[in-house]
Write a structure and sequence with these properties.
heterodimer, A: about 240 residues, Ferritin, two-stranded parallel sheet, 8 helices, about 55% helix, globular, disordered N terminus, B: mainly alpha, two-stranded antiparallel ribbon, about 45% helix, Ferritin-like_SF (chain B), Ferritin-like domain-containing protein (chain B)
């Protein structure tokens, strides 16, 4: 895979390596930026499950997978929330195709996020904390910056759910994940079409035989953590 | 993805998975071991809320090759449908390119499934039914069914395409939680990797219909309620029954398998029929997921959201019996692959 999903963002080497490895701490602080530092100090150690100081451990088993999904949906919902206050979105005509699509994606992702939080609680488990995003690499006034980031998030979400299915033991949770992932795939297709007509599928998201490439939790987390502030970066090492 | 590794993995079976899944007591025991945060008091509620019939599709005797053969039948239907796109007139070059892309994907899915099933010891691969098995007019072989102009009229053709893609998404989703599929992580992941591609196809076909068959900018169409003719890229409520409600409403409705469903290759030679009685799925306008109502009682953030957004945010599964009934409309009289 490409290690740099967003054109213009800073390059990161060895994204597949766990971020809590000493060599990576240096580079993730580089990403997080100065403003996130204070947040990290406040939030560090808040999660009693933390196996890595300053990171949010999603936990183990099915609850871990659900919290992993909850983290990704928080990221997506936070992104579309920001999109709606940016100059690109506010400049779209009411009733325009792009505005209607971005509105629906905002609704859907907030619903996914808040549903997962409620479902984790209903299962008797504890949802992870509300994560603080870091979207400083995104220009919310620029159409392509927004759409390319949306494309990266939606494709990442599909690959993440596809890759996490095998770690779910409860068929009910697997079914729920299936209900969400196909909607994420529908999102990904139209967002990709907005960036380039007919790019709803492509070799970049296929493995072989026109089947979508899955991504492991650690690979997904490495990308997701580029958009999460210090203290909100996720540790998914306990899932499998 | 290493193809040879897949073929190798498919033959492996996790011997403990059936035991873990086959009784409430053992699921209970297993879950309490997994989640330190799952308290004893919370568990009964959790089991009751999550384990309804739709989830507990643990059909004993339904082997993974039966499920894969059913998927193969659906992929053959799609493959032969998209192969016959060439006589369409009045459709944009952009849209023809998209149909070619999808045709290639469906053919690749057929290739993969044939190989995957063939790698399972003792499995019989469903034989290629050939194009002669289908009548996409819905005329059962007369060619004069309700979609008689499907070969040349892109509006009819894309209405059928959307119907097939949305059905495929629901069918794969319904199969993923089956015990035999969950037990084989390689098959499960492969099924998920096809499932999301079908969803991308469905999204794009819907965009094409929304913008108009001759548009060269299919991403720029605006949906028109109630979405039968100019749909969103996702299913909104039940989409008023879909592209041709008289025939397509079951694609968006509830699924209730009350009879024998033909999972396997239909010949009865070891991978024939299996009974799926009692497996139910809600319609696409469902707004309660896993026992959690999608309303302001769950989150105050939902207060000003459009009603339709709650159903749009989740796709639903569908049982093999209902999927078979939908597919049966498009095979010729006398062909029993869908019962």
């Amino acid at each position: 895979m490409s290690t740099n999903l967003i054109p213009g963002s800073q390059p990161v080497a060895d994204l597949d390596r766990p971020l809590y490895a000493p060599i990576k701490r240096r580079s993730f602080f580089m990403y997080a930026g100065a403003t996130a530092g204070a947040t990290a100090l406040v939030l560090a150690g808040c999660s009693k499950n933390d196996s890595t100081p300053g990171m949010v451990n999603v936990g183990t088993g099915d609850a871990g997978v659900l919290n992993y999904a909850y983290a990704l949906e928080q990221l997506e919902a936070g992104f579309y929330t920001m999109v709606r206050s940016g100059a690109y979105y506010t400049g779209l005509g009411s009733g325009s195709a792009e505005k209607l699509i971005l509105d629906d994606l905002y609704y859907h992702e907030v619903i996914h996020r808040d549903f997962l939080k409620a479902a984790i609680t209903a299962a008797g488990a504890t949802p992870i904390q509300a994560l603080t995003p870091n979207f400083s690499s995104i220009n919310f006034g620029d159409r392509l910056s927004v759409l390319n980031t949306a494309k990266a998030f939606e494709d990442l979400g599909v690959a993440a759910y596809n890759g996490a299915g095998q770690y779910i033991t409860n068929p009910g949770y697997l079914f729920i994940a299936g209900k969400i992932v196909s909607v994420e795939a529908r999102h990904a297709a139209i967002i990709r079409d907005l960036t380039a007509e007919n790019s709803f599928v492509g070799s970049d998201i296929f493995s072989s035989n026109s089947m979508e490439a899955s991504k492991t939790p650690s690979t997904v987390a490495a990308t997701a953590n580029m958009y999460l502030a210090d203290g909100s970066k996720i540790d998914v090492s306990s899932i499998m | 993805m290493n193809f040879f590794q897949i073929l190798s993995d498919i033959e492996k079976v996790d011997p403990e998975v059936y035991e873990r899944l086959d009784s409430r007591r053992q699921v209970f025991k297993h879950m309490s071991g997994v989640g330190q945060k799952l308290t004893a008091a919370a568990l009964p509620l959790f089991v009751g809320a999550v384990f309804n019939k739709a989830y507990a599709q643990t059909n004993a005797g339904l082997a993974v090759q039966d499920v894969l053969n059913f998927a193969l039948k659906l992929e053959y239907l799609e493959m032969y449908f998209y192969q016959q796109r060439t006589a369409l007139t009045g459709i944009s070059a952009t849209n023809m390119t998209a149909l070619q892309t999808i045709a290639t994907d469906e053919a690749n899915h057929v290739t993969f499934l044939k190989s995957a099933i063939g790698a399972i010891s003792g499995a019989v691969v469903f034989a290629d039914p050939t194009v002669a098995a289908y009548d996409f007019s819905g005329g059962k072989g007369t060619g004069t069914g309700p979609f008689a102009d499907w070969r040349t009229n892109p509006a009819t053709y894309l209405a059928l395409a959307q119907s097939f893609e949305d059905t495929g998404v629901r069918a794969y989703k319904g199969a993923a939680p089956l015990a035999s599929v969950m037990a084989n992580k390689t098959v499960l992941t492969a099924a998920l990797n096809i499932h999301s591609v079908e969803a991308r196809h469905a999204s794009h076909i819907r965009s094409m219909r929304r913008a108009g068959v001759n548009s060269s900018t299919p991403s720029q169409g605006v949906p028109v309620a109630p979405y039968g003719a100019q749909p969103k890229s996702w299913i909104s409520g039940t989409d008023n029954g879909g592209a041709a409600p008289t025939y397509t409403a079951p694609i968006y409705g509830a699924g209730n398998n009350t009879g024998t469903a033909v999972y396997g290759n239909g010949t009865g030679s070891g991978v024939g029929t299996a009974t799926g009685v009692g497996v139910t799925f809600p319609a696409e306008d469902n707004v309660t997921q896993g026992g959690v109502p999608l309303s302001t009682s769950t989150s105050a953030n939902f207060a000003n959201f459009p009603t339709a957004s709650f159903s749009e945010a989740f796709d639903e599964g569908l049982d093999v019996g209902t999927v078979s009934a939908i597919a049966r409309t498009f095979v010729v009289t006398g062909n029993t692959m869908f019962g």
